[in-house]
Amino acid sequence: MSIATIEVSISALLHNVAAFKTLSPNSQIMAIVKANAYSHGKNMIATCLDDVVDYFGVARLEEGIELRKIGIKSPIVLLEGFFLHDEVTQLLKYNLQTVIHCQEQIDKLKYLDLPAGSLDVWFKLDSGMHRLGFRPEQAGQAFQSLCDCQVIKQSINVMSHFCCADDVRSSITTEQMTIFDQFIATACDPSRIGKQSIAASGGILAWPVSHRDVIRPGIALYGVSPFSYDEPNRATGAGLGLKPVMVFKSEIITVREHKEGESLGYGLIWQAQYSTRLAVVAMGYGDGYPRDILANTPVWINQRMVPIVGRVAMDMILVDLGPNATDKAGDEVILWGNDALPVEKIAAHSGMSAYELLTRLTERAKLRYVD
């Protein structure tokens, strides 16, 4: 039976980690595995990297707990932080670290009857993203208040997040680093400051001065560029010295003869200008492939690119093979991930980011790990 498949290369993953270690030899690595490791399967990714990286980053408490239950030993950081009193108990039970980004969290920690010095935390500074974290004018007092919480450990890690690191011409990133450094320099109790972290994928690849103690590769860990597809030499992960970890693929279900002038698919939005052969491919928006992909977006079949025609359906897409094609049922179809068809190229065709393309893939697509 033909089925959408997410093929994940472990050797490519390890290559990328090695590349980050070369780029930032004095930094530790926090591998970001939120959103099921960008659809690469967080459990397997974390298992393969447990002895290779220094931390894992997750968005949700449940993600961290699941990693502990499968035996992951490395420190795990809850990037969104906790919200409820009961979640702090879970953090301690499963030895998870948490980001502290608002006063409400500090207030909860002050009144918890828990062992002193038991919780690892990351103080988040809002250096310009204006999403989570303490504003610079609030940060000093908030840090002091956090220091007064008995439940936390002596060493308090400090982190922030760039908002424009993917724009190498923007001055905002430099301004954010200045704000970050000013906070570190003026902290009320410098002896309490632990690890520093501000660089995610864009910062790692374009702003080496930002690397600090811990770098946090997310999409770049999986061999995908965080930069615009229009950015010279940075459009794809391969151009940055990375290897794509995912190949998204399926198979031809059947090949049909199609006559000149005939329309096809939902809404009959595509009409053949010549008689041709069409492949019906086991792939659709039920697998996470974008329904609103632009006309003529390519797929890769038998060493060539051929265009999608008509509207993407839940379970199938149609591809114009050409009038003299010899492709047949069962032949492999690559939607993205090989050298000729990187996911960044499909993102440009879809009007979406590569982040969205990867993380929208559904459980119906089968994960398969190679090498």
Would you state the CATH class of the largest domain?
Alpha Beta
CATH architecture of the largest domain: Alpha-Beta Barrel
Order of helices and strands: EHEHHEHEHEHEHEHEHEEEEEEEEEHHE
Q: Shape, please?
A: elongated
Q: What structural class do you assign from the helix and strand content?
A: alpha/beta
Computed over alpha carbons, the radius of gyration is: 24 Å
Helicity level: 25-40%
- Strand content is 15-25%
Unreliable residue stretches: none
Number of domains: 2
Task: Write down the oligomeric state.
Answer: single chain
Main sheet properties = 8 strands, mixed
Distance between the termini: 24 Å
How is the CATH topology of the largest domain named? TIM Barrel
The count of DSSP E runs of length 2 or more, i.e. the number of strands, is 18
Mean pLDDT: 96
Pathway: Amino-acid biosynthesis; D-alanine biosynthesis; D-alanine from L-alanine: step 1/1
Function: Catalyzes the interconversion of L-alanine and D-alanine. May also act on other amino acids.
Binding site for substrate: 131, 314
Catalytic activity: L-alanine = D-alanine
